């Protein structure tokens, strides 16, 4: 079981995502989130998935793409820190990633499949991290973080966007 990080293992805006994870079993949260994601998006039409709740906001397809991209970045950070790499890791500009990806050109099925593949890779990676390595710390986005903090960031970031989808997209 992978437990939630302590307060000294993360900082900055990452705490907002970690705070959304209400279980001590982060790997179980990964599974729960995957089920929630599938339930929200699997019955959605292509037209519905192009919906934006306001001008300049992402489409639902872009939200799916963003979830996969961000999980890839956070998993990479988690791996580097768990493996003892203390090289500072830069931030990334999510809107630039969205603009370059053309997620609206992919089907909902393709994007969900990508999210599932990324999640399977994250879970596989997590299974190769030794218990003591979860406590290793490094720097990402100018913030000191532990490897296990990034696992919680992955889960909490997804929960954040699932809440936004329910509250702003599906209510419109």
From TrEMBL:
Residues 29-164 form the DinB-like domain. It comes from the Bacteria. InterPro entries: DinB-like (IPR024775), DinB/YfiT-like (IPR034660). This is DUF664 domain-containing protein.
